[in-house]
Amino acid sequence: MELQRGNEQLETLNQTLNDPEELKKYKEAGDHYDPAPLPRLLGAWLVWWGNIVYGREPSYLKFRAVEVIARVPYHSWGSAAFTLLTLFYSNEQKAMHLSKVATYARLAGDNETMHVVVISGLAKNEEHAGVVRHTLVPMLFAFFYFCWSYILYFVKPRYSYDLNYMFENHAFEQYSRFLETHGEELQKKPMHSEFLAWYGRHPRTQYEFFLSVRNDEIIHRNTSIQEINCR
Question: In this structure, is residue 191 part of a structural domain?
Answer without folding.
Answer: yes
